[in-house]
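Chapter summary example.
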Amino acid sequence: MNKVILMGRLTRDPELTYTTNTNTAVCKFTLAVNRRFAKPTDEVKADFFPIITWTKTAEFCSKYFRKGQMVAIVGRIETRNWVDQEGRKHYITEVIADEAHFAEGRRSSEAGAELFNSAPSVNVANGEGMQNTAASSGASNGFYAIDDEEDDLPF
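The structure predicted for these 155 residues follows.
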């Protein structure tokens, strides 16, 4: 199975083009995804993934995504190679996105664009940081602290 889910910030505005033969929309951008780190004192490192979207998804990304914005991508990894004019072989690994989603609110997105290189990373996979952050401000990044009693859950 070849499926990838990434969440990160756009490093530049998406570039929309159309294929010459079929006039199909193609949108390309790069997504910076923070790595997890062992200690809070460690330097934040990121991986940069080239993303390609097609047709309606490409038009959506071009219209609504901007540099610095946090987005989530669902797709697959593809590799390709080519030989340049000098006879050298080149390889590239890209993510072909089938789905593209906003991963933060508009205000957070605008702040993220300003603080692109210094945005903190929070580990929400195991709930770390959610309770304290949400309790101090009521809500942070769309997360709210809730009791885990079954009677109080809305579903």
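To summarize the output: Strands lie at 4-10, 15-18, 25-34, 46-54, 70-83, 89-102.
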